[in-house]
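PROTEIN FOLDING TASK:
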Amino acid sequence: MNRSWLPQHVRRQGIAIFALLVCVACTNPPGAPSGSNAGPRAGGTLYAASWLEPTSLLEAGITAASQHAIADVAPMVEGLLGLKNAADVRKNPKVADFYQPQLATEVPTTDNGDVKVSGSTMRVTYKLRHGVRWSDGQPFSSKDVVDTANFFYLKFKDANPTQLFSTSGWDQISSVTTPDDYTAVVNYKSLYGPYLTNFAGPYGVLPSHLLQQTWTAGGDLTRTKLAVDNTPSNPAAYKGSDTWDKWLVGTGPFVFREWVGGDHLTMVKNNLW
């Protein structure tokens, strides 16, 4: 399954820009014979370095839009859509040509009938992948799409207990309906051109079952501690209790293991992906 990574709060022109300084050791990998030049191999460990550590994992599009946080988080979380590699974008592209499905099965456009315009309003239908599970083992469904829209605007409007850096775009959504577990219909109160940026990339979709627990406890992601168990996706993954800014539950190819501030962030293979 080919599911690329995309920052959620991209610029409104539909282009995501984020930076990561990757430093892969030029010396031999641990355990390799001195002077070995065997080249790449399957498995093993990759070390990547960033020159700026985020203070919170939520800076990847929720409490801030840190390019470094986005780069750190992107391998572990997905949105409904992701950006294509530049080399894969056709000549003379439309905006939709920059995107490819992640948790959705297709990019919604007027051409494929997933976008319907009625007067000054519009309706966008997302067809969702079947059989996807969050890293804690819970199933992904259209309810996650509904509660993501609820979190970013519909539930609290501008009085969210979590201090969001922006509600732009989310505030154009009037409702999200779910004909079934694998269909989400996003109703816009205006003709919102950059609609593809909503629900896209890291934190583009949040797990409903954890949002519901957080709302019961007051609603602030940075203050509410939840018990999280990522071991269904990998026995070596994270299991513990903390606030959202210290762990990740996602659907990406890698899963969160641990974050030790000032030292390292470790992710392991997601066996459910």
Summary: The beta strands are 81-83, 99-101, 115-118, 121-127, 173-180, 183-188, 225-229, 239-243, 254-260, 264-269.
